[in-house]
């Protein structure tokens, strides 16, 4: 059984769009492409390298696949990330059955990527690791397929852009298994899948008249 691990670079307000450069993904009028490099430091780099120490296969949405396929095969042959990305199997989600998978070891997830990923997860093999793929992540979260979440949170608020979590994610708790901060303020966190969401209350056992009226107004507003 393979784990599906979501790894993401995010801003304080949860934006993960185009961290690497201005032309990476300007869709939606995003104005801050390349927000990550000025905040990058050695410890953040070590944390990223740690993601790739164990064998893995990649799970990518179409847009991130296109970004990676146009970059990683063309970096210096000695680049360690380029080498491991090239060797890994790339499972690609796209609605276009005619989409050209030009990068070595790439496989289409088919017309039902959720069903195919469930099948792949049930196989023996290395863990499955996402990179980027903000749109496809929403499908993974909505179908509760994520086993671990690894985030590098950078100290910047962007106010716009594609976010890690959007409406429709399945309700779920995660357990923090690791957390540390780099000198530049990057918070590296790892979360493991836990249980269902539980609720409690700090409200008065006997609500005040003002509270009763407040609740009545809320109910009336629908």
Structural class: alpha/beta
**H/E topology pattern:** EHEHHEEHEHEEEH
Helix proportion: 25-40%
Q: Identify the CATH architecture.
A: 3-Layer(aba) Sandwich
- What's the Cα radius of gyration? 20 Å
Q: Specify the number of helices.
A: 6
Any idea of the CATH class? Alpha Beta
CATH homolog superfamily: Dihydrofolate Reductase, subunit A
Domains, number = 1
Which segments are poorly predicted (pLDDT under 50) over 5 or more consecutive residues?
A: none
Roughly what fraction of the amino acids lie in strands? 15-25%
Lateral arrangement of strands in the main beta sheet: 4-3-2-5-1-6-8-7
- Rounded to the nearest angstrom, the distance between the terminal CA atoms is 44 Å
The number of strands is 8
- Tell me, what's the shape? globular
In the CATH scheme, what's the topology name?
A: Dihydrofolate Reductase, subunit A
Largest sheet: 8 strands, mixed
Q: Overall mean pLDDT score?
A: 96
Core attributes:
alpha/beta, Dihydrofolate Reductase, subunit A, eight-stranded mixed beta sheet, 22% strand
Give a topology summary:
Elements: E1 4-11, H1 42-51, E2 56-61, H2 62-69, H3 80-87, E3 90-93, E4 106-108, H4 113-122, E5 127-131, H5 134-142, E6 148-154, E7 174-181, E8 187-193, H6 209-221
Parallel strand pairs: 1-5, 1-6, 2-3, 2-5, 3-4
Antiparallel strand pairs: 6-8, 7-8
């Amino acid at each position: 059984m393979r784990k599906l691990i979501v790894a993401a670079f995010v801003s304080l307000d949860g934006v993960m769009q185009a961290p690497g450069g201005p032309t990476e993904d300007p869709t939606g009028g995003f104005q801050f492409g390349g927000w990550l490099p000025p905040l990058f430091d050695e410890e953040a780099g070590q944390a990223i390298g740690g993601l790739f120490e164990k064998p893995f296969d990649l799970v990518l949405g179409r847009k991130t696949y296109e970004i990676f396929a146009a970059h990683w095969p063309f970096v210096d042959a000695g680049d360690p990330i380029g080498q491991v990305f090239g060797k890994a199997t790339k499972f690609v989600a796209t609605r276009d059955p005619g989409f050209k998978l030009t990068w070595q070891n790439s496989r289409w997830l088919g017309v039902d990527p959720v069903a195919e990923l469930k099948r792949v997860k049930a196989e023996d093999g290395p863990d499955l690791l996402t990179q980027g793929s903000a749109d496809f992540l929403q499908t993974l979260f909505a179908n509760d397929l994520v086993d671990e979440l690894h985030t590098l949170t950078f100290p910047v608020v962007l106010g716009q852009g594609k976010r890690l979590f959007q409406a429709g994610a399945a309700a779920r708790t995660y357990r923090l298994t690791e957390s540390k901060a780099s000198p530049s303020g990057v918070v590296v966190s790892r979360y493991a899948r836990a249980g269902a969401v539980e609720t409690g209350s700090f409200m008065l056992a006997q609500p005040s008249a003002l509270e009763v009226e407040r609740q009545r107004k809320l109910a009336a507003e629908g």
